[in-house]
Specification:
Keywords: Hydrolase, Protease, Signal. This protein is of the alpha+beta class and 502 residues long. The protein contains ten helices and 29 strands. The structure holds 2-acetamido-2-deoxy-beta-D-glucopyranose (NAG) (5 copies).
C-alpha cells in the first residue's frame, strides 16, 4: 500500500499549473436503458457477444462460434454497448466529437465517410478537408475487435482532450457496420502494445508532460433510468489526466502491478467474493475495461457464484444467469484484487460492488415473459434477476475475468505509468450515489417506470437483502457440481435457445 503521506504529497503537487486536467464524462444513451424489455434483453445478449469478440484474439476464443450464436436475435439493437464518453477535438480548427472512453483497447478512431448511413448515419463524421493540420498516410486501418467491421485509413492530426492538443495517429473509419450510435469516436486508454497499428495512444503521448505520471477515472451511475433514454446524463463521471481527484475517494488507494504485458490494465485477482468471502482463492487475471458494460468470468467460477446465491439459479445459452432475488438484488459481492502468493503485486483487498450494478434485469415471471424470456417451470418464486456477471461460455478460459463498468462504478480507478500500476479506492460517500431504494431496471409497460429517481444515502450493499424462501443470502460456497440434468429452450423471442443445468 502506498503510504498515506506519499499520496497527500502527490495530491498537493497536483495543481493546474502542472498540467492536471479534469473533465466531465458523459453517460450516454444506450439500449441498455430501452423502455422495451425485449430490446433491453437483446442488447444484453449482444453485449455478451461484443465482449467475447473484443477479447477473442487475446483469449483464443472461436470467433465463428461467437458470431453464429448471434443469428437468432430478432430485436434490432440500436446502440453500441458501452456508454461513457468525453469530448475530443480533432483538427484545425477543431471539430468536436463525443468519444467513447475504452480502457480495454488502445486505438483512437473516428467516423469519417460513412458509406452506409444505415450503419453509421447517426454519428457526426470527421471531415479531413476542413482541417488544415490533417495528414493521411495511405495505410489501412482495420479493426476486428468490434461486432461489425471498421475499415479506413490511418491518419494524423491534432487531437485535443481537456485542452491539451497532441499530433496523434488515429483511424479514420470510412466503412463501418453496426455503429448506430451518436458517438463518433472511440479512444483507447490501454497501452501502445495493444494498438492494432502499433501507434502510441493519446494519453501515453500526453503523459510525457505530466508532473504526476497518472490519471484517474470516476464513472457515475445513471441517475434516472427513464430519462437516460431521451436525455443522457452529462454527469456521467470524471476523467483526470496528469493526476487524480482525491475528492472522489476516501482512505488509501491500493495499487497492483500489471500481471500481463499485453497492453491492457490486467492485474492479479482472486476473483469474485460473496458476503466478503472469496469463492475460489486461486490467483487469476483480471482486466478492467471501461468500454464493457458487464463482468465476464470463467464458466466454473460464474456457476459457483450464482449457485451460491441461489442453488437453483439457471444459465442461459448466451452465458447469462437468472436467480431468485428480492427487489434489491440479493448479491452483496466484491471483487478481490491482488494475490497473497506474490506480495510484490499488491496486497489482497476486496472492493464491494453495489447490488444495483450487478443486476441487469429484475422482475416477476410475467415480466420476464414480456422481455421474451420464459423461465423454466421449476422457477416458481416471486421474483427473479438476471445478473450483470456473465460466463465466457468457453471452458478454455479458466483463469480470466473481464471487469467492466458494473465494477468500475464502485471505485475511483487510478492508472499509473511510472511504475506501471493500476489502483482502486472506494468512492467517497457523496459520489457513491445509489438511486432508488430498490432496483428495478424494467422500464415502461405498466407505467411504473423502473429505477427510483431519488438518491438515497449510500449504505453497504444498497437496499435490504431479503432472505425468504431459504434462497438468498449466499453463505454457501458451492463448488460447481459437475454435469447435471439439462433442459432446453427458455429464452424465446428468437433471442437464443437456452440450456440449463440442474
Ligand atoms: C480487415 O481484417 C479482416 C480480418 O483480418 C480481413 O478479413 C479483412 O479482409 C480486412 N479488410 C481489409 C479491407 O483489409
Ligand atoms: C509538452 O509541453 C511543451 C511545452 O509546453 C509542448 O511544446 C509540447 O508540445 C508538449 N508535449 C506534449 C506531448 O504534450
Ligand atoms: C426522470 O426522467 C423522466 C423522463 O424524462 C422525468 O419525467 C422524471 O421527472 C425524471 N425524474 C427525476 C427525479 O428527475
Ligand atoms: C455484505 O458483505 C460485507 C462483507 O463484504 C458485510 O460486511 C456486510 O454486512 C454485507 N451486507 C449485507 C447487507 O449483507
Ligand atoms: C431496511 O429495513 C429496515 C428495518 O426493517 C427499514 O427501516 C429500512 O427502511 C429498510 N431499508 C430499505 C432500503 O428497504
Amino acid at each position: 500500500m502506498l503510504p498515506a503521506f506519499l499520496l497527500l504529497t502527490a495530491a498537493a503537487a497536483a495543481t493546474p499549473a502542472d498540467g492536471i486536467r479534469t473533465f466531465a464524462v458523459r453517460n450516454a444513451q444506450s439500449d441498455a436503458y430501452s423502455a422495451d424489455p425485449a430490446t433491453r434483453m437483446a442488447w444484453f445478449h449482444e453485449e455478451g457477444t461484443r465482449v467475447r469478440l473484443k477479447y477473442a484474439e487475446r483469449l483464443g476464443l472461436n470467433v465463428d462460434a461467437i458470431k453464429a450464436s448471434r443469428k437468432r436475435s430478432t430485436v434490432q439493437v440500436q446502440n453500441w454497448g458501452s456508454s461513457y464518453s468525453v469530448q475530443v477535438d480533432i483538427g484545425t480548427p477543431p471539430q468536436t466529437f463525443d468519444t467513447f472512453i475504452d480502457t480495454g483497447s488502445s486505438d483512437l478512431w473516428v467516423v469519417g465517410r460513412c458509406q452506409d448511413p444505415r450503419e453509421c448515419g447517426m454519428s457526426k463524421p470527421f471531415v479531413p478537408k476542413d482541417s488544415s493540420s490533417f495528414q493521411g498516410t495511405g495505410r489501412i486501418f482495420n479493426i476486428t475487435y468490434l461486432k461489425g467491421e471498421t475499415v479506413g485509413e490511418w491518419v494524423e492530426d491534432v487531437v485535443s482532450v481537456g485542452g491539451v492538443g497532441i499530433r496523434t495517429m488515429f483511424g479514420l473509419a470510412d466503412y463501418l457496420t453496426e455503429w448506430s450510435t451518436e458517438q463518433s469516436a472511440l479512444m483507447g486508454l490501454g497501452f501502445q502494445d495493444a494498438s492494432t497499428g502499433g501507434e502510441m495512444p493519446w494519453w501515453q503521448a500526453a503523459s510525457a508532460n505530466w508532473t504526476e505520471k497518472r490519471w484517474g477515472m470516476y464513472l457515475a451511475r445513471t441517475a434516472n433510468w427513464t430519462d437516460a433514454v431521451s436525455n443522457p446524463s452529462p454527469q456521467g463521471g470524471e476523467l483526470t489526466f496528469g493526476g487524480i481527484d482525491r475528492s472522489k475517494f476516501y482512505g488509501d488507494a491500493s495499487f497492483y502491478s500489471l500481471a500481463s504485458r499485453r497492453g491492457l490494465w490486467t492485474i492479479p485477482s482472486q476473483g469474485i467474493a460473496l458476503q466478503g468471502r472469496i469463492l475460489d482463492p486461486t490467483t487469476v487475471l483480471a482486466t478492467t475495461d471501461s468500454g464493457t458494460s458487464i463482468i465476464m468470468g470463467p464458466d466454473a467460477a460464474v456457476l459457483a457464484f450464482y449457485r451460491a446465491i441461489d442453488p437453483r439459479a439457471v444459465a442461459f445459452s448466451d452465458g447469462s444467469w437468472a436467480y431468485e432475488c428480492g427487489p434489491g438484488g440479493n448479491i452483496n459481492a466484491s471483487f478481490a484484487f491482488g494475490t497473497p502468493n506474490e506480495p510484490g503485486f499488491g496486497p489482497p483487498r476486496l472492493f464491494e460492488m453495489w447490488d444495483g450494478d450487478l443486476v441487469f434485469f429484475s422482475g416477476t415471471r410475467a415480466e420476464f415473459a414480456t422481455a421474451g424470456v420464459r423461465l423454466p417451470p421449476f422457477m416458481m418464486g416471486e421474483r427473479y434477476c438476471i445478473g450483470n456477471v456473465m460466463s465466457w461460455n468457453d471452458d478454455t478460459v479458466s483463469n480470466y475475468w473481464l471487469i467492466g463498468s458494473p465494477f468500475l462504478r464502485n471505485v475511483y480507478s487510478i492508472y499509473e505509468t511510472t511504475p506501471i500500476r493500476h489502483g482502486f479506492a472506494p468512492l467517497s460517500f457523496e459520489f457513491n450515489l445509489k438511486y432508488g431504494d430498490t432496483y428495478n431496471p424494467i422500464q415502461g409497460g405498466d407505467g411504473a417506470s423502473g429505477g427510483g429517481n431519488s438518491p438515497h444515502s449510500p449504505s453497504a450493499g444498497g437496499g435490504n437483502v431479503t432472505t425468504d424462501a431459504g434462497q438468498g443470502g449466499g453463505q454457501a460456497t458451492t463448488k460447481p457440481s459437475g454435469a447435471g440434468r439439462s433442459g432446453v429452450a427458455m429464452l424465446v423471442g428468437g433471442l437464443a435457445l437456452a440450456v440449463w443445468c440442474l
